[in-house]
What we know:
Layout: H1 12-22, E1 26-28, E2 35-37, H2 39-58, E3 62-63, E4 69-71, H3 72-75, H4 79-85, E5 91-94, E6 97-100, E7 104-107, E8 112-119, H5 124-134, E9 143-152, E10 166-176, H6 179-200, E11 206-209, E12 221-228, E13 234-244, H7 246-250, E14 254-256, E15 262-264, E16 266-273, H8 275-284, E17 301-305, H9 310-329, E18 334-336, H10 344-353, E19 358-362, H11 364-369, E20 371-376, E21 382-386, H12 390-415, E22 417-419, H13 423-432, E23 436-440, H14 445-455, E24 458-463, E25 468-472, E26 479-487
Parallel strand pairs: 3-9, 17-18, 17-19, 22-23
Antiparallel strand pairs: 1-2, 4-8, 5-8, 6-7, 9-10, 10-16, 11-12, 11-24, 12-13, 13-16, 14-15, 19-20, 20-21, 23-26, 24-26, 25-26
Helix pairs in contact: 2-6
This protein binds one RNA strand through residues 1-3, 32, 80-81, 84-85, 87-88, 122, 153, 155-157, 163, 210, 213-219, 222, 236, 239, 241, 304, 306-308, 340, 342-350, 352-353, 361, 363-366, 373.
Amino acid sequence: MAEKITPRDKDYSQWYLDVIKSAKLADHSPVRGCMIIRPNGYALWENMQAGLDGMFKETGHQNAYFPIFIPQSFLAKEAEHVEGFAKECAVVTHSRLMLDDEHGLIPDPDSKLEENLIVRPTSETIIWHTYSRWIQSWRDLPILLNQWANVVRWEMRTRLFLRTMEFLWQEGHTAHATEEEAVEETLTILDVYSKFAEEYMAVPVIRGIKTASERFAGAVDTYCIEALMQDGKSLQAGTSHFLGQNFAKAFDCQFQNKNNELEYVWATSWGVSTRLIGALIMVHSDDKGLVLPPKLAPTQVALIPIYRKDEERVSVLEVASRIESELKAAGIRVFVDDRDAFRPGWKFNEYEVQGVPVRLALGPRDVEGATVEVARRDTGEKTTVNQSDLTAHIQELLETIQQGLFDKALAERESRTTEVDSYDEFKTVLDEKGGFVRMHWDGTAETESQIKEETKATIRCIPLEDYDEDGIDPVSGKPSKGRVYYARAY
RNA sequence: CGGGGUGUAGCGCAGCUCGGUUAGCGCAUCUGCUUUGGGAGCAGAGGGUCGCAGGUUCGAAUCCUGCCACCCCGACCA
Length: 490
């Protein structure tokens, strides 16, 4: 691909799309708002799934699968839930097509369904319908399930990975006997999400709770992790909801507790999606293309053999293959690109654009001196390493890169987080610097929506850490219990 | 749904104002030779119902009418 990537400071959105395109992560589909996830993108998703899935299982969850179609009547049962999702549902009304002389292929009017089916925008309704049949006693609780699935939300404006009409995600749905246990579950998952974001994705996150206006439709409380992108905008990277007894009441899901009383079941739901890939791109990548953290990179090390004559080819490939075995034995995901159809320079560029953390070059000079050229994707730094030290060196380097990416992202976020005590300063910071702005909030929806209207900034969250501090909301002049995180967001 | 714009090769575009004979350019693709330590060079080749449907005309990518699709801004978006 001879395509140039638009620099970030010229056009950030275009840069984002260029990175995705040149790293071959995804394509636009013939259907507006949908995306084709290409092998490079899907491999990344598989690594994310593997990491998260392991953590879910460690915390006692099991996977299950519920159907993609939900009876329309189910969606009507929880009032706030309907309001939140009704405007963005794909509806199935017919079961077959027929050939019409005038119009060609049309839905067969005779096949109209008795009840419309909704393509799930999320699965609370069908799952709580099911739970109401599974749960009778406190002995049936808790239920700790997760499912990996696709969902559809008919969005007006879409962007690859960040907001698509169909996306892949995991959704956890748990049922508990007590409020305390459900709240604890919500927070356990928030921990899992922050740990995953920070340790695997190398993306630092703010953990917090959403205000009423940003809350999930049907939740009592929505906890979230928020990450700051390089353009100073915030991205909600994961949410964990305490649903109270709302869905249990809507689906009549009661159990007999230890006191022999009937009680509604307490619920949580939580999810992260392919949007995480968008976050990953926007936090680490640069004007040369994708930059991936080693823990999630499908290929951690790309080895490029260099040769001219046939006898060089033989000797170089022999060493390359030995290095490949050694690295693989150490659990490193290495790929030897011995394709003759492409030249070394082209390959160097290819792996840079695709974000492979470490590139090795091995030519006749190296074979002679028993060395390898090692290049880092994140810093561009090149060194020459003795073949005998290579495996240990790479292992250490991958950890260094992983940590380096996190440290850099954290430093960036900290430098872009500003505490302000006046509305004027708030606006100035937002326009000139972007990022998170920590300001006192009086806790009212009025102030929140006034600020949103005037500045397009929203309260990303009320943070769980560093919150308690009495003060005054500079917009309303009313007392405040602490500083919240404001930002313009995706 | 309101405002603006665009449909010509896989992708990006020119040509349209002022109709004319074989519709062109860049990238990509294919073949051959030379190349290979940072996106190779040269030579040749393949690839098009000009968004769709009508109309005007000897003749339409070009003019007229209708339709369709997509994009941008706004509205909307847990």
